[in-house]
């Protein structure tokens, strides 16, 4: 590309948000120092240290669970449901008021482009609180059986790819249904959860209703395995999910898991090609591909393969990779050195297995963790890049000849979180969608989320649903779905 | 009406036409062949097109890039007056503004063309002299296009004789909407011939075609028939140049060049009133068809009030403060 129309840097101001040099844990309505070994959180785009954060020890987790139990028994559980709703509405409004702070902080700590944190993550997080606030006093009429009751204390562990949004997916339904929570944010992205703790204070949420315990895997394990936790909710890798399922097995705890994915994005020859290309890009490069439901396997009908790939390469060449705080950035930084290493490893395996790697000319920053947008063609269903979740901006392209073959290949995965169908023929879309073993199927779009729509997976993508009426059942006793 | 499956369709093969550019030289051999071709173009998903332009609309164009964009946009304006009340005096005053949009700043670029009705093309020609600014004239029973072929051709010949370098014609939307695609095509071919050396811009009037699928088909008809530019609207029908329509037409000129090697220009017209709208269009070009179209030879804005907004924004960038409408000339 020539440089005829260069966009001057348009960075969002960092000074909008104050980052403290160190943070404690949020327990019983107060920030307190943790007793574990503190850790540093860095900006993945520059490797600059943003802050030092307390790690929760077993004793800290114990205090947090005790606070949550107290709040559940004395305040939040007995509270009039309409009043619980008021608190949630207040939190939602405060999140909107402070949305710029949240967006900048999320982009700094996670590496995602400000366009996405500003236009997707933060508005959706607020929308989840608004949506669930509305349910708080209507649970008797949700069609979940008579008088559904809260479970008690929920222990929740969330990932680093959508730190604030995953918090909202977990906290909003738990509180709306009358539970209290102990939440463990991801080790590399704790900052927006701690800003959310400030919002809880600002909203006068009763102490102990929300507790946030930062830390790494050990802290998460302490939350999940704590005896006084009634409900465990986890979003993250299938590997960790499996160990949680093992730890919870045989206890009274109820469990929901939202794990990995290897979604098929199926493009038929009668698809609206330009919009399909846009959807493929949105499917795999949204949030650097750090998306459990990313459309990481493109299944394209052989008769339009060359046309689609040529179009896709032209489009990918226009993606703007760089400073996450620049409003014109499309693709930000990879969240951690560890994740970057995994993406490199799987890409190298892809090449070694005989797939064809293509990357556009793009200059990556010198510091920080970066990976260019990548597509692999000539991928066979037996290749590891067609089977393993890369969790990065790497697309594997496979082909099919008939609708049956498309369905067979799409379902040939150990996961089953999401899928996409591109066709101008409505009857085909409905038929194929019914045959796909995936929790979410998008038609002529991809990676669209809404609090009213249940989200969750088949097979090793986990169990339980989040969002919508279905999502409420995971936090209610005796809820029978009709 | 004929259809690809209609056995009578083949008997229609009697027309003599200028064949389009290879590899499409056989698609206009019959009504049914042409229909099959046009309906075989990939569909456009309206929701997807809208969300694409919405994302591009968030591009933040600041400082040096904004200054470049404003000057480039000014140089791409077809400064337009298309009123029943137009007079030679009005056209002369518009021509003066076209030559020197900002009297206080000689560094301000001039516009690309002045666009008038055919009878006033001579006045515009004389007033613009050797400035290098083109005279564009609307013709073919603009804006409705409801007249016989002979009248339309006479309209074009008259405008060219009056000194127009560019002819902005309207397609026969009635014929298009009843599926007589070959009639639409033939008429454009005939008008192109009547244009002689003048450049032909083909107005689709997308507000009357309504669907994006129609916009894509009409774009292809105009390009296959030899149009030098495809243009969204007359400015007399709402909606006019919306961003999704512009996106689809830009994709059409991009795909047409990729297939035939011939580059066709694009002109959105009507409804583009602010610098922000203009910059959104430049971003759209930059990120869909690329910089080859970022040139007045290949891209124009059909507009009247846009120029003053561009000038005010330009003054703001230059002086650091906003002036008011009295600091730019009324047209």
Features:
heterodimer; A: 482 residues; alpha/beta; Aldehyde Dehydrogenase, Chain A, domain 1; Aldehyde Dehydrogenase, Chain A, domain 2; 2 domains; 7-stranded mixed β-sheet; 6-stranded mixed β-sheet; 20 strands; globular; B: 331 residues; TIM Barrel; 8-stranded parallel β-sheet; 13 helices; disordered N terminus; EC 1.2.1.3 (chain A); aldehyde dehydrogenase (NAD+) activity (chain A); Ald_DH_CS_GLU (chain A)
Shape of chain A: globular
Question: How many beta strands in the DSSP annotation of chain B?
Answer: 8
Helix content of chain A: 25-40%
Structural class of chain B: alpha/beta
Largest sheet, strands/sense/barrel of chain A? 7 strands, mixed
**CATH fold name of chain B:** TIM Barrel
* Gyration radius over CA of chain B: 20 Å
Overall pLDDT confidence of chain A: 97
Give the N-to-C terminal Cα separation of chain B. Answer: 48 Å
- What series of H and E elements makes up the topology of chain B? HHHEHEHEHEHHEHHEHEHEH
- How many domains of chain A? The number is 2
Structural class of chain A, by secondary structure, is: alpha/beta
CATH homology group of chain B: Aldolase class I
- Tell me the major beta sheet of chain B: 8 strands, parallel
**CATH level-four homologous superfamily name of the largest domain in chain A:** Aldehyde Dehydrogenase, Chain A, domain 1
The chain pair with the largest interface is: A-B, 26 and 30 residues
**Are there runs of chain B of 5+ residues with pLDDT below 50, and where?**
1-16
Strand order, largest beta sheet of chain A:
14-15-16-13-12-17-18
The strand order across the widest sheet of chain B is 7-6-5-4-3-2-1-8
Tell how many strands the DSSP assignment of chain A holds: 20
What would your notes on this structure say?
The complex is a heterodimer of chains A (482) and B (331). Chain A is of the alpha/beta class. Chain A has two domains: 265 residues, Aldehyde Dehydrogenase, Chain A, domain 1; 180 residues, Aldehyde Dehydrogenase, Chain A, domain 2. In chain A, 38% of the residues lie in helices and 17% in strands. Chain A is globular and about 65 Å long. The N and C termini of chain A lie far apart (56 Å). With 331 residues, chain B is an alpha/beta fold. The N terminus of chain B is likely disordered. Chains A and B meet through α9 of A and α2, α3 and α12 of B. Chain A: Keywords: Oxidoreductase. Chain A: Its EC number is 1.2.1.3. Chain A: This is Aldehyde dehydrogenase. Chain A: Belongs to the aldehyde dehydrogenase family.
């Amino acid at each position: 590309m020539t440089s005829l129309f260069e966009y001057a840097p348009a960075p969002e101001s960092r000074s909008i948000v104050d980052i403290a040099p160190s943070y404690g844990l949020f327990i019983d309505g107060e920030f307190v120092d943790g007793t574990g070994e503190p850790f540093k959180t860095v900006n993945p785009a520059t490797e600059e240290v943003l802050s030092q954060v307390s790690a929760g020890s077993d004793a800290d987790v114990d205090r947090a669970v005790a606070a949550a139990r107290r709040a559940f028994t004395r305040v939040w559980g007995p509270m009039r449901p309409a009043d619980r709703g008021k608190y949630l509405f207040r939190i939602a409004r405060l999140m909107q008021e402070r949305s710029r702070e949240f967006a900048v902080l999320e982009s700094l700590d996670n590496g995602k482009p400000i366009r996405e944190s500003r236009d997707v993550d933060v508005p959706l997080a607020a929308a989840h609180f608004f949506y669930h606030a509305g349910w708080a006093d209507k649970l008797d009429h949700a069609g979940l059986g008579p008088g559904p009751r809260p479970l008690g204390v929920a222990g929740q562990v969330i990932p680093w790819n959508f730190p604030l949004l995953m918090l909202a997916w977990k906290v909003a339904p738990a509180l709306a249904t009358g539970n209290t929570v102990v939440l463990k944010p991801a080790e590399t992205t704790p900052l927006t959860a701690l800003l959310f703790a400030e919002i809880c204070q600002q909203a006068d949420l009763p102490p102990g209703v929300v507790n946030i315990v930062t830390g790494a895997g050990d802290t998460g394990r302490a939350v999940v395995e704590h005896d006084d936790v009634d409900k465990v909710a986890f979003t993250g890798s299938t590997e960790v999910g499996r160990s949680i399922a093992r730890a919870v097995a045989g206890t009274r705890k109820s469990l929901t898991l939202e794990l990995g994915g290897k979604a098929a994005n199926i493009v038929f020859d009668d698809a609206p090609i330009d919009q399909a290309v846009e959807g493929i890009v949105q499917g795999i490069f949204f949030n650097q591909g750090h998306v459990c439901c990313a459309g990481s396997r493109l299944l394209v009908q052989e008769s339009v393969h060359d046309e689609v790939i040529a179009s896709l390469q032209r489009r990918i060449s226009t993606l703007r990779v760089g400073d996450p705080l620049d409003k014109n950035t499309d693709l930000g930084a990879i969240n951690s050195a560890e994740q970057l290493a995994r993406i490199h490893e799987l890409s190298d395996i892809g090449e070694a297995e005989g797939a064809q790697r293509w990357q556009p000319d793009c200059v990556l920053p010198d510091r920080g963790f970066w990976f260019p947008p990548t597509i692999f063609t000539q991928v066979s269903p037996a290749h590891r890049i067609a089977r393993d979740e890369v969790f990065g901006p790497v697309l594997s392209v496979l082909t099919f000849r008939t609708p049956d073959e498309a369905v067979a290949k799409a379902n040939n995965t150990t996961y089953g979180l999401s899928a996409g169908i591109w066709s101008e023929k409505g009857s085909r879309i409905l038929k194929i969608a019914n045959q796909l073993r995936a929790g979410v199927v998008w038609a002529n779009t991809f990676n669209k989320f809404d609090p009213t729509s249940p989200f969750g997976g088949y097979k090793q993508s986990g169990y339980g649903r989040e969002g919508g009426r279905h999502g409420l059942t995971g936090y209610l006793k005796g809820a029978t779905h009709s | 009406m004929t259809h690809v499956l209609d056995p009578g369709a083949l008997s229609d093969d009697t027309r003599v036409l200028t064949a389009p550019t290879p590899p499409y030289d056989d698609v206009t051999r019959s009504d049914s062949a042409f229909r099959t071709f046009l309906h075989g173009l990939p569909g456009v998903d309206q929701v997807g097109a809208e969300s694409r332009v919405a994302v591009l609309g968030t591009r933040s164009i600041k400082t040096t890039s904004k200054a470049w964009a404003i000057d480039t946009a000014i140089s791409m304006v077809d400064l337009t007056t298309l009123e029943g009340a137009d007079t030679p005096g009005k056209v002369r005053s518009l021509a003066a503004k076209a030559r020197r949009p900002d009297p206080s700043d000689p560094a301000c670029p001039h516009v690309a063309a002045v666009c008038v009705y055919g009878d006033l093309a001579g006045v515009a020609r004389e007033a613009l002299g050797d400035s290098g600014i083109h005279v564009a004239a609307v013709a073919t029973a603009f804006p409705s296009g409801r007249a016989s072929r002979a009248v339309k051709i006479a309209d074009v010949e008259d405008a060219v004789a009056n000194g127009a370098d560019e002819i902005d014609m309207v397609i026969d939307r009635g014929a298009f909407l009843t599926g007589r695609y070959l009639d639409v095509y033939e008429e454009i071919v005939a008008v192109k011939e009547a244009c002689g050396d003048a450049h032909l811009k083909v107005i689709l009037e997308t507000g009357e075609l309504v669907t994006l699928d129609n916009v894509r088909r009409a774009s292809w008809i105009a390009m296959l028939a030899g149009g030098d530019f495809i243009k969204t609207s007359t400015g007399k029908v709402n909606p006019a140049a919306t961003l999704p329509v512009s996106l689809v037409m830009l994709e059409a000129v991009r795909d047409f060049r990729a297939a035939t090697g011939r580059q066709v220009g694009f002109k959105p017209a009507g409804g583009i009133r602010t610098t922000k709208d203009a910059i959104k269009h430049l971003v759209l070009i930059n990120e869909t068809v690329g910089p080859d179209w970022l040139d007045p030879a290949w891209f124009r804005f059909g507009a009247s009030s846009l120029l003053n907004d561009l000038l005010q924004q330009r003054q703001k960038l230059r002086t650091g403060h906003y002036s008011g409408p009295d600091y730019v000339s009324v047209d």
